UniProtKB/TrEMBL annotation:
Ranges for domain HTH cro/C1-type: 31-75
Pfam families cross-referenced by the UniProt entry: HTH_31
Organism whose genome encodes this protein: Gemmobacter megaterium
Record-linked InterPro entries: Cro/C1-type_HTH, Lambda_DNA-bd_dom_sf
Domain of life according to the entry: Bacteria
GO molecular function: DNA binding
UniProt-recorded name of the protein: Transcriptional regulator, XRE family
């Protein structure tokens, strides 16, 4: 529920919180003067921040947050609360590893937004093939994915309807020779890593790659598979037909070029 105007923190309150947080962050620094030189902040102005007498400009705040690996919540929340959020620290570290400052934005012409169909070997049913659909879309220059897995569990005993649908989401990252994809189901806390190169056996129609699940090895299951991706370019009727094909099957509807790629031995990946 939104706070009433009388409950909103005053500018003095916010400055005081920021000052306390900044003093706590600086407690591990050997020299405030050296810190100011490294961040590129005027020492006199920095003293005003420490005393809770002033706010930093947005660009100065960004430098402070980047140095101490925190976010702009240091203006409003006690540093103890922010540090307790281990997910934020992990996310910042993952960002620096996967998308360093010199990383280039995604060239969207390499993978235009739209619907894509993929084929891979089943992880849980040896000898079977999985057909699925992905929605690839861009938000604020970030290439993302949304889809769901269908598991062959009937709604009622004796029926053939597939009922269990597990949604998952992903983020694409561009490399000089292809694109990688990190996906998570969220609720089951299982990640998958996928890498695609452009083209398949000289055909530019497909993206060809390999995908792996982050889980322990279990008897009768797999964690690694080839995967082939194809951008959908048909109409609504064609999309409905494809939607009826998703799930686990014998691979009869997998194109021959994709089938050969999927059937390669793991040593050839």
């Amino acid at each position: 529920m939104p706070r009433s105007p009388s409950q909103q923190p005053s500018p003095a309150d916010i400055r005081a919180v920021f000052g306390r947080n900044l003093r706590a962050l600086c407690s591990a620094e050997s020299s405030i003067s050296d810190l100011c030189r490294r961040i590129g902040i005027n020492r006199t102005q920095f003293n005003r921040y420490l005393a809770g007498e002033a706010f930093p400009r947005p660009d100065i705040l960004q430098r402070i947050c980047a140095h101490f690996e925190v976010d702009a919540r240091i203006l409003l929340e006690p540093i103890e609360t922010i540090r307790a959020d281990w997910r934020l620290r992990a996310a910042l570290r993952l960002r620096d590893i996967a998308m360093p400052p010199d990383a280039r934005p995604f060239d969207h012409y390499l993978m235009p937004d739209g619907i894509y169909r993929f084929w891979r070997k089943s992880f849980s049913n040896p000898g079977k093939y999985v057909t699925g659909l992905w929605q690839v879309h861009t938000v604020d220059s970030v290439k993302m994915l949304k889809s769901f897995d269908i598991y062959p569990q009937p709604v009622r005993r004796g029926t053939k309807r597939f009922s269990r649908k597990v949604p998952y989401w992903g983020v694409f990252m561009q490399h000089f020779d292809g694109v990688s994809l990190l996906c998570s189901t969220g609720s089951e806390n299982v990640l998958s890593f996928t890498f695609f190169e452009y083209g398949l056996n000289g055909s530019t129609r497909y993206y060809n790659g390999v995908t792996i699940l982050t889980r322990r090895q279990m008897q009768g299951t797999a964690r690694l598979s080839n995967i082939v991706l194809d951008r959908f370019t048909g109409n609504g009727s064609d999309l409905l037909r494809l939607a009826r094909q998703i799930g686990i099957g014998d691979g009869d509807q997998v194109p021959e070029a994709a089938r050969r790629a999927l059937d390669r031995l793991p040593s050839e990946l």
